[in-house]
Amino acid sequence: MRIAFYDVKPYDKPWFDRLAPEYGCEIKYLDYHLNADTARFSEGCGVACAFVNDVIDKDTLDALAETGVKLIAMRCAGYNNVDLKAACYMGFKVVRVPEYSPAAVAEHTMALLLCVNRKIHRAYSRTRENNFSINGLIGFDMRGKTAGIIGTGKIGRVFAEICGGFGMKVIAYDPYPSDSFNGEYKPIDSVYRESDVISLHCPLIPATRHMINKDSIALMKDGVVVVNTSRGGLIDTPALIDALKSKKFYGAGLDVYEEEADYFFSDYSAEIITDDDLARLLSFPNVVLTSHQAFFTEEATREIAETTLKNIQEFNTLKEGRTLVNEICCDNVKRLPD
Ligand code: NAI
Q1: Average pLDDT in the chain
Q2: Catalytic: 184?
Q3: Does 320 or 208 have the greater pLDDT score?
Q4: Is 292 a catalytic residue?
Q5: How would DSSP label each residue in 150-204?
Q6: Of ligand 1's atoms, which has the minimum distance to the CA of residue 157?
Q7: Ligand 1 mean position to 157 CA, how many Å?
Q8: What predicted TM-score, i.e. pTM, was given to this entire model?
Q9: Does 151 sit in the ligand 1 pocket, CB within 6 Å?
Q10: CA of 199 to the centre of ligand 1 (A)
């Protein structure tokens, strides 16, 4: 099976190169994002392997179909960048890696929260300059504070456990409550109103797009910390910027950003940032922004490579009419009206 592997980064190769022969796969690495223009580079490959910022819309799917690609293998959990409805109608199979290390993302979420709270990023810069003043670096005790978790799936539940370990009260909203969540479910507005820390762990779907907006921010406590390690589109960025400017928030920890596709995962240190919202976010001393790296641990990268290759191998031997283990189910999508 030959795989067109889009948007490759140096850290992708070690595990994929090591494991590909075991799964009977040969990989054609491509530096570009997958989109309607680059889809043609899949010629001769049955599989297009894509990541979080690739654009897999109807135009890309049309171009992929012409190259003979039959399987889109997402090497990530989220699939908000795939036009699933179009993919299903066109007969593509779409697979993903539903779980690689919930702990990796949940631990990074806590790292962002601790950094924002205790201003570690500023302390680090100061001591590097032999400035040992602690003026302005005051934080707050986490013990006894309320963590509001939106989405208690695999990652949200691990983050809830971590918050519990810090002695925080944990409340959550999820339209599909889980028996294994160790905290109290509340309506979403109560989570906004009662939380000292709000952490987003739900998928980006139409119902969640811009859920953090002017109205939900108005419900929040003054001095709240918002952490987003899920998808940038969950937050209306101008509303976040307004709230930061008006000092509504204690701070924000962000691993994702709505328009991240243009910048994240690449080095622009010698360039001018032309995205004014991104530049503004980076200018706040109480915002810590990482470049979609919450997943990035040794354990998770190995799991991503292994599951992606297993998904592809399974597709290769799939009997007509059967569904793949990690296939993104299209039955509901097919029934949706336009
Ligand atoms: P999951 O599917 O296990 O959990 C998602 C939860 O969100 C489910 O319990 C679901 O019921 C809930 N949900 C659905 N609609 C909701 C709504 N309207 N409001 C509140 N909750 C809602 O997913 P998992 O593995 O926990 O991942 C969560 C998100 O984290 C993913 O969607 C992905 O976007 C993001 N992610 C980010 C990574 C990073 O490196 N920054 C890495 C992996 C995932």
Answers
A1: 95
A2: no
A3: 208
A4: yes
A5: E--SHHHHHHHHHHHHTT-EEEEE-SS--TT--SEE--HHHHHHH-SEEEE-S--
A6: 26
A7: 10
A8: 0.91
A9: yes
A10: 11
